[in-house]
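Q: What structure does this chain adopt?
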Amino acid sequence: MPRLDRLTSILIQLQSKRIVKAQEIADRFEISLRTVYRDIRTLEQAGVPIISEAGIGYSIMKEYRLPPVHFTEDEALSFITAGKFIERLTDQSTIEAYQSALYKIKAVLAHGQKELVDDLSERIAVLKNRYLPEERNEHLNIGLFLKAINEKRVIQIVYQSPVKQGQSRNVEPVGIYSSGSNWYLIAFCQLRNDYRNFRIDRITSFEILSERFTGTHLGLHDFLIQTRTERELTEVIILIDKEAYSYLGDQHYYHGFVSEKSVGSQIEMNFLCASLTGFAHWFMLLGSSADIVKPLNLRKIVSEKLDQVRERLEAS
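A:
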């Protein structure tokens, strides 16, 4: 990237958040910290009022603003791509907020870019996953959860788990994430004095309280890494006939799929599985087209499940 373009991009990045660390700039543009310091000095010499705090980062005086930014063609098209995912994966209030923001973005696009965006918006789609339920909760209140997270406010929720009656509890929200067709809230539960993972569509009611929490919680990214590390995973190896393999679709990705290779007339598939019982239920769908290589106790679990099915059929 030419240096002038990089300087402009750094200036925009500095206005994108309250504090920007030098390492963030270096990582984004793949440059050294020494180059970052030199670029910052150049911007300062050009009259940009940059505030530098040792060990913290850079910020710009709040009164300083750039004139309206002109987007590149690729940047303009990325808004349309993002919008398609928002329409598929979020709730109605988030969709409406994004569409409102998109109108403002379009207002500063060049005439040719506006035509390009309008034309291509009809030529890109995000289809539903045929292995996941099509129904989607249109009232997830994602924006309100983000507001509570940003303001560090305690939320009072009633959570309905699959096996327990809904119970009121106060939680300190850490973050939200999407997985499959569901959204989840990571929060510190004051009732259990520990972190919990709540599926948002099972939160039957919630209220943002005036109470603020002051404790410092693990960041969402770090929490997800820690959770993944702490989970006890079991290596599973199965062999599936090649003619049956073509009908799997994407199902195996939901059971810890790691790798596969061809072995004669079969495909050897390797998994790191968090629940052998859950894996056994899925394996039964493969019928007589697959074999279990390891672990041996998975064979026992599948056999017991088959006996339970047989007993239930005979009793009905």
